[in-house]
Each structure stands twice: as structure tokens, then as C-alpha cells.
Amino acid sequence: MSTSIGILHVRRSTFIQASTQRVWQEFETTDRIKSWLDQGLIIHVFEPRIGGRVRMSVEVGGAEHFYGGDVLTVMPGQELSFESQWDGDLAWPVPTFWTIRLSPLYDGTHVELFHHGFERLGAVAAENLQSYEQGWDNKHLIALKQITESEADDS
Fold first, then answer.
1. What distance in Å separates the CA atoms of residue 56 and residue 45, rounded to the nearest whole number?
2. What is the pLDDT of residue 99?
3. 20 in Cβ contact with 35 (< 8 Å)
4. Per-residue pLDDT reduced to its tens digit, 54-113
5. Which of 10, 27, 36, 90 could lock 86 by a disulfide, CB 3.0 to 4.6 Å apart?
6. H or E segment to which residue 10 belongs
7. Where are the domains of the chain?
8. Inter-helix orientation angle 30-37/139-154, to 10°
């Protein structure tokens, strides 16, 4: 099952000089995922399998806030998607989604990270989209690139 990317989404991407199979190795265990994604947020649980759970937290306004949800899509070497729903007072009426897609390109991999589904939020969709557009940078994908390419250079 592929998670559809709606019109309101945040997208960050990078090109990695490694095969999709090699890049996907960084998605196969919680420890490997933490090595590049656990920056500016804390990963408490990341079960990279259909029906698995993702549980993360981030500091907002001086307090730790938790979010996450169910893993929805796992297509090895291609895509990983999961729900993103805040706990407590920050909760949206419905969850949004994160999708990470790997596409072979030239002799490497184009990696895209999407936060999407904002259109599901109704009247607050535009405000939430803008907030994430301003707040997200590319540090996670840069870390994934550094880890993957440095290990490829060592082999």
C-alpha cells in the first residue's frame, strides 16, 4: 500500500550516492533509524514494519510533547509511511502522515521526506502547513546521506 501525497505537504529531499538497497539498510532497525532521524527530536519507539508504532517527542515552548502513530506502509527499498498525531492539547482532529520515498536515480538514490495530509485538518490546514514549512530543515536527510555515503566509501 502506498500512501498518497496530497496537495498540502512539506517536502525535503537529497541525492545519495548509494543504491536504494544500501540506503534502505538505514531503515531496517530502530538503532539505524535513530542514527540519522533522532536530531532535534527524540525517537522513543520506531518499529519499521506494517502495524508497528512510531513514538517521538520534541520540545515545544519549553515542554516535551509526544507524537506518532501506526506504521502504514513498508515497501523495502522504496517507501516507509506512518501516522503523525500529537498527544493531548496539541492533537489534531485526524493524524497527518510522514512518508519517506527512495527512488533510483543515475547510479544513486533520490530520497524524499514528506509531511503530508494537512488538507485533512480543514480550516487550520494552511496555518499548520506554513508552520512546518518554516520549521523543517534538511538535517535528517543530510545525516542519512553522510552515514550512507561514508559507509559506502569504507567498503
1. 7
2. 97
3. no
4. 999 999 889 999 999 999 999 999 999 999 999 998 999 999 999 999 999 999 999 999
5. 90
6. strand 9-16
7. 9-150
8. 120
User: Quick one: cell of 147?
Assistant: 552515514
CA distance 129 to 21: 32
| Planar angle of CA 64, 140, 93, nearest 5 degrees | 50
Report yes or no: 26 and 44 within 8 Å, Cβ to Cβ: no
Of the pLDDT bands very low, low, confident and very high (cuts 50, 70, 90), residue 1 is: very low
- Give the pLDDT of residue 3: 72
- Give the whole-angstrom CA distance, residue 37 versus residue 146: 12
Residue 153 clears pLDDT 90, i.e. is over it? no
Grid-cell match 503523525, residue found? 84
CATH 3.30.465.10 fits 9-150, yes or no: no
C-alpha gyration radius of the chain = 15
Q: How far is 118 from 126, CA to CA, in rounded Å?
A: 8
Name the grid cell of 47: 518499529
CA dihedral 12, 15, 21, 27 (to 10 degrees): -30
In the DSSP assignment, the letter for residue 19 is -
